[in-house]
UniProtKB/TrEMBL annotation:
GO terms of molecular function: ATP binding; metal ion binding; ribokinase activity
Name used for this protein in its record: Ribokinase
Pfam families attached to this UniProt entry: PfkB (PF00294)
Family as reported in the entry's similarity comment: Belongs to the carbohydrate kinase PfkB family.
Annotated InterPro entries: Carboh/pur_kinase_PfkB_CS, PfkB_dom, Ribo/fructo_kinase, Ribokinase, Ribokinase-like
Name of the top EC class for this enzyme: transferase
Organism from which the protein derives: Pollutimonas nitritireducens
One of the GO BP terms on file: D-ribose metabolic process
Record EC number: 2.7.1.15
Sequence ranges assigned to domain Carbohydrate kinase PfkB in this UniProt record: 2-225
Alphabetic keyword roster: ATP-binding, Carbohydrate metabolism, Kinase, Magnesium, Metal-binding, Nucleotide-binding, Potassium, Transferase
An example Gene Ontology CC term for this record: cytosol
Length: 242
């Protein structure tokens, strides 16, 4: 919690008696930096729609609302509903991947899965740029306004009704720990949108953040400052039409 306080992050939580805080075990391959993650959600699995309603005013006052699936899906859905109702930009990072009700997709201004999650949600195995495009179009047909599939070292693919755009990955040095890279991209992208950046520039912001984070050990502690990201972006190439 000291890290959150030092960064000025507000933490509002409901105490769940007779349950532990969520626990994550992360195993990192010291040769490649790749990781394997096991999660026990703990208290998070008790989150309800009513819990989300308690914070409706916070959601309504936001520029961007980001949610993932480490709590019950219906809690995530309620957050998306409140955000859409109040004109807040919505981002769903569907991790860990699971079957989603059809009414979730139209609530997403941006659906942001990785290759594995996109494969599960679309039914198309994503192992290339072309298969990522095919999966994205399935998810667009389900109602998402924009789909961004993160593709590791290949970058991130944006697809919507008008275009496909590939934002390149960013290398800031030797990869030593990929833990949190996907979350970093999502957070950087959301931060970019909240700053008023165009979606493609926001993707570059997220790519720079993720590229720096993998050169450091840890998850939250590996995330760079805004100043570091902006400096890195000066050397980051622009993407290309898909």
């Amino acid at each position: 919690m000291a890290l959150w306080r030092d960064e000025g992050i507000c933490s509002k939580a409901r105490i769940v008696n007779d349950e532990v805080t969520g626990v994550t075990s992360i195993f990192v391959d010291t040769r490649s930096g790749n990781n394997s993650i096991c999660v026990y959600p703990g208290a998070s699995r008790h989150m309800t729609r009513d819990d989300i309603d308690t914070h409706a005013s916070d959601i309504a006052a936001s520029a961007v609302f980001v949610v993932q699936l480490e709590q019950p899906v219906q809690a995530a859905v309620r957050g998306l509903e409140l955000a859409k109702k109040n004109g807040v930009i919505t981002i769903l990072n569907p991790a860990p991947a699971c079957a989603l009700p059809d009414d979730v997709f139209p609530l997403c201004d941006y659906l942001l899965p990785n290759e594995t999650e996109a494969s599960i949600l679309s039914g198309i195995e994503v192992n290339s740029i072309e298969s990522a495009k095919a999966a994205a179009h399935v998810l667009l047909a389900k109602g998402a306004a924009n789909v961004i599939i993160t593709l590791g070292e290949k970058g991130a693919l944006l697809c919507n009704a008008d275009e496909a755009y590939l934002a390149p990955a960013f290398s800031a040095g030797k990869c030593i720990d990929t833990t949190g890279a996907g979350d970093g991209f999502t957070g950087g992208f959301a931060a970019g949108l909240s700053r008023g950046l165009h979606v493609k520039e926001a993707m570059r912001f997220g790519a720079a953040l993720a590229g720096i984070s993998v050169t450091r050990h840890g998850a939250a502690v590996s995330m760079p400052t805004a100043a570091e990201i902006e400096e890195a972006m000066a050397g980051l190439p622009h993407g290309s039409a898909g």
